[in-house]
Task: inverse folding
């Protein structure tokens, strides 16, 4: 379980998040939704200990993210941010291999290689294994980074907009794979997602933020309602059931 | 730059996924052999007159070369890694200027007599310690994400360097001629006139730093991924950054004290090392940078001394070539 308590973030005098408190339950997929600047990524980055909050505490699986050694934490929690820039020229396999770093400190064992192969397989990267990252499309690179995080094999996985740069096919494939990771491997996955329909279709739980505060949270069906989405996104939204799937319609 | 391009072309075949022709280990071995040849050429060829006189002198210069190659080569590679760029070097963002300022301030506050009477290892250690403390504070502050943009960093570094230089020049004008004279001896280190008694200490430091860096080579690899990704996979980023900056400060301060300021030498060998090493891994890149540094200095000194009869100008030539490469890389990439 991920718990955050009175977490807030301010830059100079401008408060961009919180104070917010809440829990993200064990297992399944939880999505953070909300308009731009709502604080979704900030909250996720704080939970992933990449950003020091101005105040508040976060525990992941009972470990305080601020005081636990980062090396220890890396075996329980992984996080992928939106922008990932790398100076060196790496192949897909080498980057995914870095996901094993918390377990092997850079010396890959046969066990680690197996994890790397599985992670690449999981995201259909096996054919690209020896390509350099700068020879990949944006979507392929995105999948490589997700594969690295999966190779890390942590119980908690935080992904900031994992569908960035992915086309329809790969977006759906990615979500199915994440669903599988949650269901079959028992991982707790937290996503920041812009597409509410994708979020609704694949998440167990949705947390909606606006203006740095949590507006509401609940199951997909509880959140996918006209008045809630209209309020959260400050835009007229109607929700229709299409093939039994609540679908938000907002473009007119 | 056709040589560079052809090397790169060989390192990365056009067809992706193809195997690279030479493994990084083999490349390292070849370069090591060339370095050994360079060292042998420098030590044993063209000895005119007494062997007993020439040889120890050349050994001393060789020692300084090894230290300079090690410090600038390794220092620059590690600096590139922890600062997430491949253009800026400790020297380019004002490290040399900081060194000059430190020396000048020492003379200004403690006087030339202090320098004359305290000449030797203790003073060197004290100066280095001060320099390390200052540089670490300064560069840790610069790189802890306060500025974010590398362009801004470069600018801040260059401006600080200029400020240090101006301050040094100003203080030097206030000094008495005798003090200034003694100071300029401190500031004009040159490969061919190295104080030999510093060498054991310098070697000791290089070995200690080398061992620390070698033991952390995997962690350095991980740092290549940038702050966030490195933290994600369990590297204590800020601690590593600080430690590395301390080590870099130590290396560069010592090399500068021994062989004088060399602004583009580190950049030159590091850039070549990335192209030739055939791997991103520090276990290959760091020794490669060192060996390339040795080749550059030993062959350079050999040719300058015996072919062109201008031994003192080696550093000038290296700076010239390194500076051109720096501009070339900057223009080709069009970005930092």
Result:
């Amino acid at each position: 379980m991920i718990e955050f308590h009175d977490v807030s973030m301010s830059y100079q005098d401008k408060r961009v998040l919180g104070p917010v408190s809440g829990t993200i339950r064990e297992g399944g997929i939880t999505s953070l939704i909300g308009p731009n600047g709502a604080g979704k990524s900030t909250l996720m980055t704080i939970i992933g200990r990449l950003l020091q909050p101005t105040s508040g505490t976060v525990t992941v699986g009972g470990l305080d993210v601020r005081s636990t050694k980062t090396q220890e934490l890396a075996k329980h929690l992984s996080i992928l941010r939106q922008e990932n820039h790398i100076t060196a020229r790496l192949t897909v396999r080498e980057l995914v291999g870095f996901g094993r770093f918390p377990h092997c400190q850079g010396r890959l064992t046969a066990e680690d290689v197996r994890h790397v192969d599985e992670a690449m397989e999981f995201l259909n990267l096996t054919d690209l294994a020896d390509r350099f990252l700068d020879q990949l499309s944006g979507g392929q690179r995105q999948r490589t980074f997700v594969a690295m995080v999966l190779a890390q094999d942590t119980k908690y996985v935080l992904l900031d907009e994992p569908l960035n740069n992915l086309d329809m096919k790969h977006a759906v494939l990615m979500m199915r794979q994440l669903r599988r990771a949650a269901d079959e491997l028992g991982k707790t996955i937290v996503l920041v997602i812009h597409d509410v329909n994708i979020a609704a279709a694949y998440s167990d739980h949705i947390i909606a933020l606006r203006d740095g505060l949590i507006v509401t949270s609940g199951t997909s069906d509880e959140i996918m309602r006209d008045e809630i989405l209209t309020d959260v996104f400050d835009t007229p939204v109607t929700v229709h059931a299409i093939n039994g799937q609540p679908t938000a319609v907002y473009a007119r | 730059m056709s040589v560079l391009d052809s090397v790169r072309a060989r390192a990365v075949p056009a067809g992706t996924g193809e195997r690279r022709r030479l493994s990084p280990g083999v490349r390292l071995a070849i370069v090591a052999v060339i370095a050994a040849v360079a060292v042998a050429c420098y030590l044993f060829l063209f000895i005119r007159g007494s062997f007993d006189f020439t040889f120890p002198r050349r050994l001393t210069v060789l020692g300084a070369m090894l230290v300079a190659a090690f410090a600038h080569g390794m220092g620059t590679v590690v600096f590139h890694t922890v600062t997430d760029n491949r253009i800026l070097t400790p020297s380019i963002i004002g490290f040399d200027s900081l060194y000059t300022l430190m020396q000048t301030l020492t003379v200004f506050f403690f006087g030339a007599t202090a320098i004359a009477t305290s000449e030797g290892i203790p003073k060197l250690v004290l100066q280095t310690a001060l320099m390390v403390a200052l540089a670490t504070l300064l560069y840790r502050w610069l790189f802890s994400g306060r500025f974010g943009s590398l362009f801004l960093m470069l600018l801040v570094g260059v401006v600080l360097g200029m400020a240090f230089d101006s301050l040094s020049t100003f203080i030097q004008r206030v000094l008495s001629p005798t003090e200034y004279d003694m100071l300029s001896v401190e500031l004009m280190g040159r490969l061919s006139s190295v104080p030999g008694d510093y060498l054991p200490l310098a070697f000791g430091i290089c070995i200690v730093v080398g061992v620390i860096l070698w033991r952390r080579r995997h962690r350095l690899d991980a740092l290549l991924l940038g702050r966030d990704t490195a933290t994600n996979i369990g590297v204590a980023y800020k601690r590593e950054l600080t430690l590395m900056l301390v080590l870099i400060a130590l290396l560069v301060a010592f090399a500068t004290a021994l062989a004088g300021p060399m602004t583009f030498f580190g950049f030159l060998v590091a850039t070549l090392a990335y192209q030739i090493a055939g791997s991103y891994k520090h276990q290959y890149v760091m020794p490669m940078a060192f060996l390339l540094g040795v080749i550059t200095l030993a062959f350079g000194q050999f040719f300058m001394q015996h072919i062109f009869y201008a031994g003192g100008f080696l550093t000038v030539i290296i700076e010239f070539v390194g500076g051109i490469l720096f501009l070339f890389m900057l223009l080709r990439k069009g970005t930092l």
Summary: Chain B touches chain A through 27 residues (CB under 8 Å).
